[in-house]
Amino acid sequence: MDATTITFIIYLLGMIAIGVIAYRVTDNLSDYILGGRSLGPGVTALSAGASDMSGWLLLGLPGALFAAGMNQIWIAIGLAIGAYLNWQLVAPRLRVYTEQANNALTLPDFLENRFADDTRLLRVLSAVVILLFFTFYTSSGLVAGAKLFEATFGLPYATALWIGAGVIICYTFLGGFLAVSWTDFIQGILMFLALIIVPIVTLMAVGSWDDVTAAVAEKDANFLDAFHDMTLLGIISLAAWGLGYFGQPHILARFMAIRSLRDIPTARLIGMGWMVAGLFGAIFTGFIGIAYFGPEQIEDPEKVFILLTQVLFHPLVSGILLAAILAAVMSTIDSQLLVSSSAITEDFYKQILRKEASDKELVWVGRLSVLIIAVIATLLATDRESSVLSLVSYAWAGFGAAFGPIVLLSLLWRGLSRNGALFGMIAGAVTVVVWKAQTGGLFDVYEILPGFIVCGLVAILVSLFGKPASEDTKAEYDRVRAMWR
Fold this sequence. Notes:
- The structure is a single chain.
- By secondary structure, the protein is mainly alpha-helical.
- Helix content is 78%, strand content 0%.
């Protein structure tokens, strides 16, 4: 057994151990879904960042830079702007409002309470959207994990897929939100270190930055130009990835779970510092990788990070760095499984099927939901030709367009009505599905942009010209707003 394998095994056992510890302190549904709203700023920041970036940061983004060059940086720029605005505009308001809205534990729970929706339509629809798009999102992470095991250990893709899924299911099943958050914290540190070390060592192996640019230019001079083959619409389309932040349930859950409003500025500083450093590291890994491998073509560009760690580092160090990819994958999948489980447990089972269910029963329903959802997502990930970036982009667009404008408007505008939120959500989700279904996409624009715009416009127009928001919900909005100002 080589050093890389030993490192992987120790890492996996450590994640499972955290799940067992968290299991012992998880007593009720609030603990299982939100950790009792007890997260400190450091854990909140790195947990949000790690669950956000996933295997996309170490596989998808470096692969995109390796394959197409610097014109892909607009995705990173849009993400950084979107993440900052999410921390600034959404985090404090959502933390206060969810606690005041009958201690809402999930996004569907919050929306129902925010608009006093007795029909349960908002809750059910938003839970369905979560389950639909998280199926694709979770599958993307499982594909990334399987590619890692396949490349590292020479395992068959199917075997690698089920091994990765099994470990994630184990600690998420046991420990719920606390296990997910603490494992994400550790995984975030690993990801950060890997994205700093790998591009620096690769640069040293190539020689100097001038050597890098010369080698890249020799392969394709256009790879040096961030504006190559880009129109204004194309730049806006890539940067529109940042709009997705406002509607990602697994990120919003961290805002809901932070210990207090006073911790948010510290968490924002830590989270944004981590994110910007990570994005730069991923960009330079892909770009310098072009120079290192020269004209040689890699069969799968999304494996450029994996290949660099294998050829440039001692097996022990390589094992630690490759564990960072596994960390990135696991940190997102576990969060997605938990949010999906929460939607089933809190928004369907407890609210509709068994209102009298005990906390113990609900926690076990949540655990069984994790298992079922994970198995379905794993079956969907059995196609090894699936692109991590493609799967992530579809799910990211679905959440961003369906929830993003509704979350923003619900926290920033007292006049948003229940019908405005409902029809806006439907319009955003449908727009993403229809736009994506067109060959190559209409006008070659990322589907989140039209989906976000359509959702926002429908929500505003229905609120203004349809049945207005009730005076009770406006008064409640004013009361809560005074608490976060």
